[in-house]
Design a protein that fits this description.
binds nicotinamide-adenine-dinucleotide
Amino acid sequence: VFVGFMGSGKTRAGRAAAAALHGHALDCDELLEHELGHSIAEEFERRGEASFREREEQVAGALLGRAGDGDVISLGGGAVLSPVVRAELARHTVVLLEVDVDHAWDRVAGRGRPLARDRDAFERLFKERRPLYEGVADAFLPPSDPGVVLRSLPALRKLAAQPPGTRLLWATTTSREYPVLLGEGLLGSGSWPTDTSARRYCVSDETVSALFSARLPPLEGVVTISPGEESKTLASAERVWRALARGGMTRSDELVALGGGVVGDLAGFCAATYQRGVASVMVPTSLVAQVDAAYGGKTGVDLPEAKNYVGAYHQPSGVLVDPGTLRSLPEPELAAGWAEVVKTALIAGGDLWRRVESGDPLDARMILDCVRTKLAVVSSDERDAGRRHVLNLGHTIAHAIETATAYRRYRHGEAVGLGLLAALRLSGLDELRVRTAALLSAHNLPLVLEANPDDVVAATAADKKRTGSQVPFVLLDGPGSVRTGCLVPGDDVRAAVAELTVAS
Ligand SMILES: NC(=O)c1ccc[n+]([C@@H]2O[C@H](COP(=O)([O-])OP(=O)(O)OC[C@H]3O[C@@H](n4cnc5c(N)ncnc54)[C@H](O)[C@@H]3O)[C@@H](O)[C@H]2O)c1
């Protein structure tokens, strides 16, 4: 069942999917107009919206009740307002076609739709309905053409067989599309995001391997590294490459990255380069990796000179996220991941920021929304040419802190928390800085930098976004409103870093 706001392309998607499945394309709005004998706009004029909603509930309910395997229903944008319809949807695979409000307006304005006459009202409706769509959706497809619907169809079909509550996100980038499966209990359930009958090799760290490698599908071999950032080196990459070569891994095999962001970045890099590229599957087990590092295809290792300095873009072939693995994650690691959640919420703004700011607990939905935020950014700019820079909010200073402290003093997430505070100071958002500091502090994240500020400022010069002698910063106008490429006077950067070294 396709759901989504007006203009999200439900009718076209439904027709394409039904044709591919040799089922019926059942369009709720078309059926309604047929039964009414006139257009929906005319029904609004004659009897008003409330009367229309009653009819819509009956037609949608009947469709959902009688649809068979392979049939595809496109629901009207407002059908999910009905609790009866929402209850019926629980029996089906519900796919949310994402669309942003500007595109939706462009597609439907001026076409006689009764609820698309006034732009402000349209935007209000969009915000009101979004949580309803998100609440019923099992799968999330990015704004797209029917091609994406067709390519994601095998994964959508398999969703009904996954453990209850599993969500599917379809990640799109220029180089590759891939499924992200997210759900409690997925690891060890037999679910797997890729279809291949490929042989699997695994890279993990010693801690995570001991906890979870037995829950993976059968493996040809496991290579483990010592836990922690200090293992994200070329020397570790060489160990992995050579172990894979000795183990006979070929280009038709799959490399599984089981662990946190360090394992993901390292294994992803090894997958990008081993025999010039093999498929990788991410199985993130830390919060940093589940909300951020496992998606988007940035892989690599650190140099003593600077962080993430050697690497490659290599999108995974699939991601399997089981939030249940976070139960064994030590508290400080969970806190470090929380800093990435705060960063993502500041970038996303809206409902995610509201929930994070008001102290909502971390749950699968919050992880899901962080992933959606990241995937939406990456899909528009895989190779960091512009839009993707927003994801580096707080990271210019964070990476400099990590480099200046030889990757030993701070976890990545802890450095990100400090980097966010500096970015908010440079953004001139004093009140938001205070609120963010309170959020970080509530998770026992450090608010005071224990490092030489001059070393940190010097290390910012190595930032990979630098052009010429200037390091551009990512700054905020407010939650959800990010500016990239901001040139900041050196004195301001020094002051923002120096401020971090003083307890307030
Ligand atoms: N590629 C990207 O887009 C991206 C994005 C964000 C961060 N990163 C990178 O991620 C790295 C940080 O990731 P991290 O914070 O996950 O660090 P990490 O991989 O070192 O994991 C942190 C610690 O938690 C342990 N651990 C992981 N999962 C566990 C579990 N379920 N139970 C018990 N222990 C567990 C690990 O053994 C390790 O000791 C940094 O190198 C950062 O640059 C990459």
